[in-house]
């Protein structure tokens, strides 16, 4: 779709990414969602970003919240510039006029505002209560007048409202607006998950689906849904091989892992998955390949000790923010990103991971473990889609990945019903680690269940875990 | 549309021709504010009749208008000695200026209407009575 329309930035780079640049200028848009879903924050962030001495914004409150309340709570956000309030951004309350004279006052009010201040953006917060003051016919007539006026003059309009699903099918504003953005909130365990979704955007393409977000002091922190890269309909693994760093493993898999491949290391508790994954990233450091270890379970200090025992290399524990910082000089050492399993929100994890890999030029990555991500995913299909997109991105960018998965027989049993079962299809290599307790002296065993692109050694191999890591015999 | 200020009687007359009443009202308001006299017409036939009766200095014209389209209206105006000198400023929903070139318009503006662009374009072609624009 060719883009002939100038755009109005949302003031949020990630929302712009989803909207492929922002809202088309001179459009009329609905921002819908339940109370507390973030509509007002979204609209205010947009207003502050687009306002200056030559670009006035009109923010009208109606009958939901008085303007004083809106302005009071607005000031806790870092995007709020108090100097703009009352000058570049005009806050006005027409609740009393509406209640006194009905919805007929709105169009003349806006027409007068256009004549006197010519606002570049008009926000009406909230539009939905106007239905309570009118008949269906009156509302339709007013909407006809309103859209006519707002189409005639160069201004971009945002109507906010807490509409129900039924409203979206029946209320006339949904048919006449050019864009609809929905903010959703769904409870999961003891915390809420928030999503942004574009339902309609005339004259523009956009990224479909649910995009996770959080409300932070800086405004909405949005994680655009990861989509499969355009360049790789079929991902092709490179022919170059890289060493795993695990004594004896490279020999079993024909010399090493293909660059850009994804390897799944599966096994029960204490079978050596984390040790193998650590050796994999440590080997990367030995070859001056930037490596990232993402961990949801083990205490960072504990992992730091493990790394020190294995190789004596230093570890940097990154926060989510640090993981996204672009560094000019890459310092030696292993980057670790620890995210508490309690706070795992799949959208933020995947997007943070993807951006960190891209911006820090990571060549090897470990996710320990995929099961923790699955626990955080309210929608199994969503987890599958994310992982698929992530694996595709890795292949395109030549990032070699290792995912661990604590499991019994899910993989070897070839259960494809669950998203974790389907991970086996995405994996280029699968190693199954186990503890054979049928022998008088239990032994550790590794079996290579799948190797894509090289000769498969189907034998079960015994291995030991020493101070310096795994040794396969 | 009448001008409340008598001092504007000698101000240049602009005719706003558009089927959209909002455009007529808003453009008319901005033009009067800038120092012009304004007359409005909602279709081509009405515009032609009014222009012949009282030739305007300029016409702000949407090409897509009922009864007589903008292209035909311009041809008729150019062929009539009383309106031949009337300037044409096209303000159209058509994003291409091709139509404006065909009617040999003096300026082309794409919709939606915007106050600054309108007055800038018009004042380059016909000076308003006052220079207190915007």
Distance between the termini of chain B: 20 Å
Extended strand count of chain A: 23
Number of helices of chain B: 5
Please report the two chains with the greatest interface, counting residues with C-beta closer than 8 angstroms to the partner's C-beta: A-B, 13 and 15 residues
Distance between the terminal alpha carbons of chain A, to the nearest Å? 58 Å
Strand content of chain B: 15-25%
Total discrete domains of chain A: 2
Structural class of chain A: alpha/beta
Q: Give the C-level CATH assignment of chain B.
A: Alpha Beta
Output the CATH class name of the largest domain in chain A.
Alpha Beta
Quickly give the structural class of chain B.
alpha/beta
Number of β-strand runs of chain B:
5
- CA-atom Rg of chain B in angstroms: 13 Å
CATH topology of chain B: Rossmann fold
Task: Describe, in plain words, how this protein is organized in 3D.
The complex is a heterodimer of chains A (473) and B (134). Chain A is of the alpha/beta class and 473 residues long. Chain A folds into two domains: 7-223, Rossmann fold; 241-472, P-loop containing nucleotide triphosphate hydrolases (Rossmann fold, 3-Layer(aba) Sandwich). Chain A is 32% helix and 27% strand. Chain A contains 16 helices and 23 strands. Chain A has helices at residues 13-18, 39-50, 67-74, 95-101, 106-117, 136-152, 165-170, 173-176, 249-252, 273-286, 300-311, 320-323, 346-359, 370-376, 380-397, 419-426; strands spanning 7-8, 23-24, 28-33, 57-61, 89-93, 121-125, 156-161, 179-188, 191-201, 211-216, 219-223, 241-242, 257-258, 262-267, 291-295, 315-318, 334-338, 364-368, 400-406, 429-436, 443-451, 460-466, 469-472. In chain A, the strands form four sheets. A ten-stranded mixed β-sheet of chain A has the order 16-17-15-18-19-14-20-21-22-23, sandwiched between helices. The relative contact order of chain A is 0.11. The model of chain A is unreliable at 326-331 and 409-417 (pLDDT under 50). Chain B is an alpha/beta fold. Chain B has a single domain (11-124), classed as 3-Layer(aba) Sandwich (Rossmann fold). Helices cover 37% and strands 18% of the residues of chain B. A five-stranded parallel β-sheet of chain B has the order 2-1-3-4-5, sandwiched between helices. In chain B, helix 4 links the parallel strand 4 (87-92) and strand 5. In chain B, helix 2 (44-53) runs parallel beside helix 3. The radius of gyration of chain B is 13 Å and the shape is globular. Chain B starts with 12 loop residues before the first strand and ends in a 9-residue tail after the last helix. The mean pLDDT of chain B is 89. The interface between A and B is medium-sized, with 13 and 15 residues.
């Amino acid at each position: 779709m060719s883009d002939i329309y100038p755009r109005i930035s949302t003031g949020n780079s990630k929302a712009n990414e989803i909207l492929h640049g922002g809202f088309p200028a001179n459009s009329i848009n609905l921002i819908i969602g339940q109370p507390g879903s973030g509509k007002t924050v979204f609209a205010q962030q947009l207003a502050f970003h687009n306002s200056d001495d030559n670009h006035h914004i009109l923010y009208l409150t109606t009958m939901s919240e008085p303007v004083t309340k809106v302005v009071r709570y607005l000031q806790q956000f870092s995007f709020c510039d108090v100097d703009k309030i009352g000058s570049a951004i005009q806050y006005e309350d027409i609740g009393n006029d509406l209640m006194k004279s009905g919805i007929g006052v709105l169009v003349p009010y806006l027409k007068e505002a256009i004549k006197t201040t010519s606002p570049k953006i008009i926000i009406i917060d909230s539009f939905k209560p106007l239905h309570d003051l009118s008949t269906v016919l009156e509302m339709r007539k007013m909407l006809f007048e309103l859209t006519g006026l707002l189409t005639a003059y160069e201004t971009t309009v945002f109507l906010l409202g807490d509409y129900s699903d039924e409203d979206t099918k029946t209320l006339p504003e949904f048919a006449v607006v050019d864009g609809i953005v929905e903010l959703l909130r769904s409870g999961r365990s003891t915390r809420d998950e928030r999503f942004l979704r574009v339902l309609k955007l005339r004259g523009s393409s956009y990224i479909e689906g649910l995009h996770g977000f959080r409300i932070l002091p800086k405004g909405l922190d949005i994680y655009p849904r990861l989509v499969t890269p355009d360049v790789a309909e079929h991902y092709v693994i490179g022919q170059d091989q890289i060493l795993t760093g695990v004594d004896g493993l490279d020999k079993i898999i024909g010399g090493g892992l293909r660059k850009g491949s994804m390897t799944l290391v599966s096994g029960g508790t204490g079978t050596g998955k984390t040790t193998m994954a650590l050796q994999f990233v440590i080997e990367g450091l030995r070859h001056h390949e930037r490596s990232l270890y993402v961990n949801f379970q083990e205490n960072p200090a504990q992992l730091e000790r493990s790394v020190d025992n294995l190789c004596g290399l230093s570890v940097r524990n990154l926060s989510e923010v640090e993981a996204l910082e672009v560094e000019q000089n890459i310092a030696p050492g292993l980057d670790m990103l620890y995210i508490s399993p309690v706070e795992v929100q799949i959208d933020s994890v995947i997007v943070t991971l993807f951006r960190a890999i891209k911006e820090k030029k990571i060549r090897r990555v470990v996710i320990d473990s995929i099961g923790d991500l699955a626990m955080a995913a309210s929608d199994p299909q969503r987890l599958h889609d994310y992982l698929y997109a992530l694996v595709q991105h890795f292949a395109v960018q030549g990032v070699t990945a290792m995912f661990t998965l604590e499991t019994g027989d899910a993989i070897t049993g070839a259960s494809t019903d669950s998203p974790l079962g389907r991970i086996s299809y995405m994996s280029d290599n699968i190693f199954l680690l186990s503890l054979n307790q049928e022998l008088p002296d239990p032994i550790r065993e590794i079996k290579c269940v799948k190797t894509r692109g090289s000769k498969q050694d189907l034998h079960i191999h015994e291995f030991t875990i020493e101070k310096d890591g795994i040794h396969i015999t | 549309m009448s001008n409340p200020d008598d001092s504007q009687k000698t101000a240049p007359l602009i005719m706003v021709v558009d089927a959209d009443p909002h455009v007529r009202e808003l453009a008319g308001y901005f033009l009067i504010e800038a120092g012009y006299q304004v007359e409005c017409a909602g279709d081509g036939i009405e515009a032609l009749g009014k222009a012949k009766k009282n030739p305007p200095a300029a016409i702000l014209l949407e090409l897509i208008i009922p009864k007589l389209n903008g292209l035909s209206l311009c041809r008729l105006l150019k062929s009539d000695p009383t309106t031949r000198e009337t300037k044409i400023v096209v303000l159209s929903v058509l994003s291409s200026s091709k139509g404006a070139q065909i009617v040999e318009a003096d300026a082309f503006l794409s919709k939606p209407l915007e106050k600054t662009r309108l007055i800038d374009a018009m004042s380059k072609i016909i000076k308003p009575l006052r220079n207190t624009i915007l």
